[in-house]
# Entry
Amino acid sequence: MPLQILSMPATFRQIQREQWLPRQRIDELQWLRFRKILFHAYNNTEFYKKRFDTAGIHPRDIQAPADLAHIPITAREDLRNPLPLLAHGVDRKKLYSSTTSGSTGRRTTTYFDQKCWLRGKFLLKLRARLACGLKPWDRTAIFSEGATNQRGILRILSRCRTFSIHNPLKTQIRELTQFNPSALYGFPSTLQLFAGQRNIPPVPKIFTSSEMLEAGTRQKIETGLNGEVFDIFGCSELKEISWECPAKQGYHINSDWLLVESLESAQANGDGKAPGRLVVTSLSNYAMPLIRYELGDTGRLLQKQCNCGRGLQLMTPALGRSVDYFTLPDGMAVSPYAMTCAIENIEGMAQYQIRQTAMNHVIVSLVPTPDYRDENSAAIRSSLKEVLPGVTIEVNKVATLKQEKNGKFRIVASELNTNPPIASPDE
Ligand SMILES: [Zn+2]
# Structure
């Protein structure tokens, strides 16, 4: 285990170099790595052996990117039981794992070997942040679903502090002001709230992720926090997929370690076409290979070269999910993630949506799974009551969930046009 940590500087130098390789060279590297993990997945996991055999394909049939379409898609549902996806002989106790946040409406767990974890969780992120001008010694505040203390290396590398978005807004504002960071990570919905408060210290570098970042929200955050926003696109199954560099020409895919396909736009030949369904292969997770994993988001792959000179391919994600804060009758703002965390472990839901129709009324619409029981609805009501005091909670079973007119799906949606309460740190 320590060997992996000791090799981190060399691995980091390698990925730093790779981003500047010409696009064609990165594509070649990517293809070599793809073929290697494809054979590994077939030879070492029960899941892909069976899946490829059923589809009548063998990894040796996949000779060029044009053959990718023959490989079956791996869906999020396939991860409900991740064990058949684990490579033979791996010791699950020695693996790292990540469970999806509630923002997708479905819960999955992905396992990573240590090498993949260190690369995806730290080194690729560090490369992207350095590209945006973040210095390792910058004070960095992360506002996330869990204040999961700072484990080792990230804290050392970037003087990070993690704060929970489940704390009252006033507490979060106080923490932000006291810590006075030069960089900030958070969900657009949270940072938008910060931006609307008085006496907020300026934060030069702001990193957003996990939700659709609308142009208006970006502007609000940049103005309110007096800094520049760099959006990041990723998911817990694959970690960071792509990120904005200062040239803002799109999002650079970590294409040396991920193979991203956009299904419709691949056929339609790239730029100018409608966003396609995004399908991603991890080129480094040998413990739990994910081959052509469908994210549930759409996006476009761009063929242009970025002005910054990096050879990493550009894309524009179009996230299909966004969330709202709820404002309660007493003026308290409740984070959408407090609600998704409260109910995401409850069985019986294939998908759900939480909608606030009045200050004191919330409707949960759920698409039931075959094993749904009435107890599940009762559990949803009682769990949500804890985070939404004084609110009536109605739970309805539905066949499908409605998308909004623009095709987006809002997992936590408020129909009220309320602004969060002003809470300055000195109140
Ligand atoms: Zn760039």
